[in-house]
Every structure is written in C-alpha cells, then in structure tokens.
Amino acid sequence: MGSSTLWPSCDLGPWKRVAYLKCHLPFYASTVINDGIVTFKFTNMTQLWEEILDAQVFNQKLLDLNANVTGDVSPLRDKVAFMVLGLDPSCTYSSVKITEETLEVECKCLLSGLPLLWKIDARKASPETFFVEIIRPLMAIVMHNERREKDLISQIITRDRFIEDLLERAVQSPRKMSKWAKFDSCQWHRNYFNSEQAAEVQQCVSSCTRGPFDESAFNEKLKLLEAIRRSSEQQQPVTTIPPVVQDSMAELDEEIPEEKETISLTPTVEKTPKKKTRRLLRL
C-alpha cells in the first residue's frame, strides 16, 4: 500500500459514522495509513481520541491478540480497518469503555472460519490536534457555506429586480407573473431558525458545551482560521455557484420576443430624411 493513502479507498472518505460506540452524540471513526503508520481516530465532535501505531507495533499487537495468527500479518491491516470502521458484517463489539481520556473497544470477526480479535486502545488527543483535525475543517465548511448562501441570496435579489422591472414596463410574459413574490431573506432565516432541524442542532450544541466558554481563546482560533482561509483564497480562488442570473435573463428574453420590439420602436424622425432624399432624386 502506498504512502498517504486513506483506507478504505471505496469512496467513504476519511470519516465514517460507527454504531458500536453508543452515546448521546454520534461517533465517527477514521483509519489513516501513511508511510507505514496506522492511525485510528474517533470523535464525537466534542473531543478526539486517537491510536497511532507503526508497522512493527501494529503487527506485534495483532500477533499478541491472536495466537492462531502467524507469519506476516501486514495484509490483515485492511481487515482490521474494516472492523474499526464498522464495515465488517461478521464483526461483533464488546467491552466498550469511553471516558474523557480513553476509548477502548474489543472487536471480533471471522477470518477463514477462525476468530480474529482486535482491541482499540485510543487516547485523548491534544487540544491543538483536535482543533486542526475537527474544529478547523468544520468552521471552514461553515464559512464556505455562508459565502455560498450570501451569493445565492444576492443572485435571487438581482433576479427579483429584473422581473420587477419587466412588470413595471408592462411586458407581457407567458409565465404567470401574478403569482410571483419577492424573496424575503429575513423571513427565510426566521423560518429556518424556527424549524425542527435548527432545534436539533441547538440541542446538540448545548449538549456539547462543557464548562465555561472561553471567548478569548475561541476568537484567537477564529482569527487564525480566517488568516488561513484568506491565504488559501489568494493562492486558489474558490468558485462558489454558477452565475445563473445571466442565464435567467437570456431565458426570459427568449420567452418574451416582443420586448425588443416594444422597447426599441423605430422613431418617426428617421422617416423624414428618407422623404427628403426621394424628393431630391425626383428633381
């Protein structure tokens, strides 16, 4: 297996929600193999546990847990990865122990009819690692979605102004413009914050809060994230959403061919020079 490879490589991404870690918050697991180093990570979005093993320690641990396994056990890394990610249907989980400092689980499955045992023994990661691995990516996603939302609302408002201008000029359209209403961004936000989805998010955030909130430390990390985001945008601009306003204007122009004729009528002043020219020719 090459270096810097996420395992498994079957379009699951680096994180997978696991059901064998039952708690009031959902748990996610990740298996990363990089330059022979096997890393198991677990998070419930409030903290991070990880177990880091090099190839020699991983092989020795697998041999110590399974007396029936001999020889080179490196090909079994994929099997263990599927067990940790909860992707092996024959795997059972027991002795689950979760504390703030440790996360321990015993995993057992069948391999060629024989039992294969693996024990997860993860330890709490440092706050810096938790910020880099969990908080910063989540905040980057939130900030990116916020920019997309602002761009979308701006384009909707531009389209509303275009339609409103057509109505003011009494342009007839095959569409039923009488049912059209301007988009109210404030009402849209109020409807979202009153929805069940927002209530579930708020309940989840409240359950994640432990102890007093350190606003100064949070703001320092937020400034750091903002600086990183600006640096990445300068290196490679992020395209948010396609410009649908121009397409919509072109579409309306095709549906309303009378618009050009009604707006750009030929002035009567241009007919006068033609008459004078004819008279000169007659003379």
From TrEMBL:
Name of the featured protein: Non-homologous end-joining factor 1
Region annotated Disordered sits at 255-283
Q: Where in the cell is it found?
A: Nucleus
Name the species this protein comes from: Trichuris suis (pig whipworm)
Primary location class: nucleus
Decide whether keyword DNA damage is in the record: yes
Task: Give start-end positions of Basic residues composition bias.
Answer: 273-283
BP-aspect Gene Ontology terms: double-strand break repair via nonhomologous end joining
Keyword DNA repair tagged: yes
**Looking at the UniProt record for this protein, which Gene Ontology cellular component terms does it annotate, in alphabetical order?**
DNA ligase IV complex
